[in-house]
């Protein structure tokens, strides 16, 4: 049997915290700061291992993210490994409506790359061009397979960490492009039908369920950290 050649793409690792009732945010999509300081530092360690960190624009807005590495030790470790001081900072937006006052544009960190569509208004495009490399796809949807292919072929990204949000994760899951899932289960219950889970608000089933193999489990500060690898057999 012959297999179609696979387009080169980075290894994709995602990182989320969730409540006992599997919510990753409240129904008002408030900032996701419900995990411990230990977990927040682990998030930075995972971020610092990657060539690039990717988020959807609503997460960048809600969580006021800089996508940098405020811990100098993590930056030094990167440089000792021969990596640039900071990972690339990648934003995804279908509409292209990206506020210019986002902390990511006004903080120390890696070069910024934005993937969007031709829907991005000209005035936003003109304002973003001096601040970021723009890749604007034609058509209403952002094709994530193309995003990943460009990250590898044009920006040398071999290892990508996606820090959400659930809308973006859902599209990566739909195309089966998530290789590693880091999940911190926090002792909280939010309730609420409309608060999103990992795969976004309640919606359509994925075309098939995705299966995972546990690689690591540790408990600390009342939380359970889980690391899973995708199994494709
Ligand atoms: N607990 C956690 O670990 C965690 C992690 C991350 C986020 N969160 C929380 O999640 C909430 C935000 O959820 P969300 O689903 O709105 O976040 P999101 O996925 O970051 O952002 C959604 C927006 O990103 C763009 N986007 C996402 N996927 C896209 C795709 N495939 N193609 C094109 N554009 C895409 C779109 O922007 P446009 O609208 O501009 O087209 C979309 O509206 C916040 O409350 C945040 O704190 C929690």
Architecture per CATH nomenclature, i.e. the level-2 architecture: 3-Layer(aba) Sandwich
Counted beta strands: 9
Uncertain segments: none
Task: Report on the biggest sheet.
Answer: 9 strands, mixed
CATH third-level topology: Dihydrofolate Reductase, subunit A
Which cofactors or ions or other ligands sit in this model? NADP nicotinamide-adenine-dinucleotide phosphate
CATH class: Alpha Beta
Give a written overview of the molecule.
The chain is 24% helix and 25% strand. It has helices spanning 37-48, 57-62, 72-80, 122-128, 144-155, 166-174; strands at 11-19, 52-56, 88-92, 112-117, 133-137, 159-162, 180-186, 212-220, 223-230. The mean pLDDT is 93. It starts with 10 loop residues before the first strand and ends with a strand. It has a 9-stranded mixed sheet. By secondary structure, the chain is an alpha/beta fold. It is built from 6 helices and 9 strands, in the order E-H-E-H-H-E-E-H-E-H-E-H-E-E-E. It has a single domain (11-230), classed as Dihydrofolate Reductase, subunit A, CATH 3.40.430. Residues 16-17, 24-25, 29-32, 55-59, 62-63, 92-95, 97, 142, 144, 163-168, 171, 200 line the site of NADP nicotinamide-adenine-dinucleotide phosphate. Residues 16-17, 24-25, 29-32, 55-59, 62-63, 92-95, 97, 142, 144, 163-168, 171, 200 line the site of NADP nicotinamide-adenine-dinucleotide phosphate (NAP).
